[in-house]
Known about the structure:
Three copies of one chain form a homotrimer.
Chain A: E1 2-6, H1 12-23, E2 28-32, H2 40-50, E3 58-62, E4 73-78, E5 81-86, H3 92-99, E6 104-108, H4 121-135, E7 145-148, E8 160-161, E9 165-173, E10 179-184, E11 193-196, E12 199-202, E13 215-219, E14 224-229, H5 234-238, E15 245-250
Parallel strand pairs in A: 1-2, 1-3, 3-5
Antiparallel strand pairs in A: 4-5, 4-6, 6-7, 8-9, 9-10, 9-15, 10-14, 11-12, 11-15, 13-14
Helix pairs in contact in A: 1-4, 2-3
Keywords (chains A, B, C): S-adenosyl-L-methionine
InterPro entries (chains A, B, C): SAM_HAT_C, SAM_HAT_N, SAM_OH_AdoTrfase, SAM_OH_AdoTrfase_C_sf, SAM_OH_AdoTrfase_N_sf
Family (chains A, B, C): Belongs to the SAM hydrolase / SAM-dependent halogenase family.
Amino acid sequence: MITLSSDFGTPYPAAMKGVLLRRTDARLVDVAHDFPRQDVRATAFWLREVLPYFPAATHLVVVDPGVGTDRAAIVVEAAGHTFVAPDNGVVVPAVREIAGDDFDVYEVAYDDDGTASNTFHGRDVFAPAAADVHDSPTIAGVERFSPTEKFVDLTFPTPTVDEETATGEVLVVDDFGNVVTNLPGRLLDGLDRASVDGEVVPVRRSYAAVDAGDRVVTVGSHGNVELAVNRGRGDDAFGLSVGDRVTVDHA
Amino acid sequence: MITLSSDFGTPYPAAMKGVLLRRTDARLVDVAHDFPRQDVRATAFWLREVLPYFPAATHLVVVDPGVGTDRAAIVVEAAGHTFVAPDNGVVVPAVREIAGDDFDVYEVAYDDDGTASNTFHGRDVFAPAAADVHDSPTIAGVERFSPTEKFVDLTFPTPTVDEETATGEVLVVDDFGNVVTNLPGRLLDGLDRASVDGEVVPVRRSYAAVDAGDRVVTVGSHGNVELAVNRGRGDDAFGLSVGDRVTVDHA
Amino acid sequence: MITLSSDFGTPYPAAMKGVLLRRTDARLVDVAHDFPRQDVRATAFWLREVLPYFPAATHLVVVDPGVGTDRAAIVVEAAGHTFVAPDNGVVVPAVREIAGDDFDVYEVAYDDDGTASNTFHGRDVFAPAAADVHDSPTIAGVERFSPTEKFVDLTFPTPTVDEETATGEVLVVDDFGNVVTNLPGRLLDGLDRASVDGEVVPVRRSYAAVDAGDRVVTVGSHGNVELAVNRGRGDDAFGLSVGDRVTVDHA
C-alpha cells in the first residue's frame, strides 16, 4: 500500500499516480492533496495525526517549497512504515509518533543533469523512489539509497504549564476554523469553564454542547485543547492565527 | 466495497481510511468529503441521488453536527446495501430510494467512557463499525449492534401541484449554482416557456440550448425542475437559496 | 484500469463511479474532478500533461459544455490507451502526445429518446461506454461503437520564435498561480535574465532560487516557459490571464 500526500491541488497528483502505476501494482490511497500550500509545519502536524492510523505502508509525501535547491530526498524506515519525502522535516513528527527515536534514514541519489525536472520532483524523483521502496524486499538493497545520520528535524513548541495557567501557541487552524493549540487536553479535566486570553469560555466535551454560534473550549480528536465555535469558525471568534500565543487559566 | 461520505474536508477522512484499512481488505471508494458542512438535509439529498447507482456496498456516512451528544449511531440494512451513520436522518432518503420501507435498523453501542473521542466519531466509532459490517457474515451477528425500531426520519417537502401552477421549494444548490427544486420534471412536459415566480423563462432540454449567460428552466439529472444559467450560476440569476419557495406556472 | 477526469466537483463523480462499479471490476483511479469548469481547452492541456504518465488504461473524460446538444460521444484508441469523451477536442492533445497521428476514432450511439438524461451524460452515456470499452476484447466489437473519420480537433497555438525574441501566449494558469505559456523552455538555455513584455526578470531553475515574493522565469514540469512568483502568484504579479500574448526577449 502506498499513501499519497501533497499540496499539489489539481491535476499534478495524477501524474504521480501514473508514474506509480507504471512501476508497481501497489494499492494507492490518497491522504490529501490540499495540504496548506508549501506549509511544511502544518502538513507535519496533520500527518502526525493521520498516518499512525494506517497499517504498515509506504507513505509518499511531497510538500516541497525547496524543490530544485540542494535539499536532499530521503527515505525513512520506522516500525514497518516507510516514508519518502523531501528532507525538510515534514514526515519527522509522524515518524516519531509511530516509532519514537527508533528509525533509519536513507538519502536518495537523483540526477541533477536535467533528467529530473527542477520543478516537479514529486513526479520525477519521489514517486519512482516510493515505487522502488514498495517493491524492494529491503530498503538498503536499493542502489541509489544510502544510509545517513543527517536529516532536517522538526519539532513542535512545548507549552508552559503551571498549576492554574498554561501558555502555548496555535499549531494549526483546521478546515472548520477550529483552533488547534499545543496545550494538552488534560488541562481541562474537571473544568466547567476556562479563561482564554482573559475571556471566560465554557469547557465542554463537544461543539454541540453550546448553542450554535457560541464559543467553546474542548479537547480535539488529537488530544489537544481546541478553541471552537459550534457551527461556526473558532479562528474568527477568538481572533487567533497559526503561531499566536494562547494562555488558558482556571476561571 | 465500502463507500465513504463526509463533510470532513482535509485531512480527517484519511484517518478513517487508515482505521478501515487496518481492519479490512475491502475496496474503498470515496463518494465525497466536501458535502455541505454539517448540513444533514443537503447531504441526504445528494446521497439519495448517487448511492442508488452503486452495486451492493457498505456505505459509511459521517455528517454529524450532533457528535458527542447522546445521538445514536446506527446501521441500516436495505436490499443488500448497508449504511453506517449517525442517527440524524442523513441516510434515510437514500435507504428509501433503494429499498422502499423494507429496511432494518440496528443501534451501535459505543463506550462513552473516554475511549472514543467526543469530537471524531467518524474515526473512533463509525469506521470500526463499517469494517465490522463489511467483514461479518450477518449484521445481527455483531455483538454491539442491537435491532431497534427507533430512528430519526428525514423526508423532503412535497410540492403543491395544480393544473397550471406548482409551488415547491429549493432543496439544494449544486456546485455549478444550479437551483434544484422539489418540483417534478413532468411539469415541464410540452412547455416551451414557464413563469418562475412571475418571470417568463425558456424551458429547454439542456443548459446549452440557450445563449451563455441566459436563464433556463430544465429537468435535472435527478428528474426535478432545475433553474439554471448556461455557463453561469442559477442561484444568483434567480435570487434563490435553499428553502426558498418557488412557484412555476404555465406562461 | 479506468481513470476518471471531469469538472463535476461534488458529488456527481460518485454516480459515475457507481455506474462503473456495477458493470466492471476495473481498478478506478481519479485524475481530477475539479478541472476548470466547462473549459475544454485548459482541461485538454492538463490531460496532455498527466495522462501520458499512465500505463495503458481506459480514460473516461467528461468536460462537456455541449451536453444535451447534438455533439457526438466518441471513443479513441491510441497506442494501447482508450479515451471515452464528448467529441469536443478535450482528449485530442493527450491522444497525439501518446500516439502521434496513429489513432482510431469511434462514435458512440446513444438513445435520444429520454432514456439518457439530457444533463448528465457522464453517468448515463460515458460511464457505461467506458465500462464496455474496458471489458470488451476489442473496441470494434462493441455494437454501438462505429468507426468514424470525423472528430473535433483541438490544437494549441504555435509561438513565433526568432533569434532573440519569442512571442507566444498564456495557455493556462495553474492552481499555484503559475503562468504556463506555449513558449518552449529551450528559449531560456544559458540565460540569466529575460525581458518579459519589456520588464527584466531573473531566469532560474527553480522558484526557490529567488526570494519569497519575487518574480522568476523558469521552465515548468511541462517543458514550457513559466512565469512565477516564489511562494506567490505569477498571474497577479505579471498581470496575465489565459489567452494573453507574451513576448520574451534576451535582456
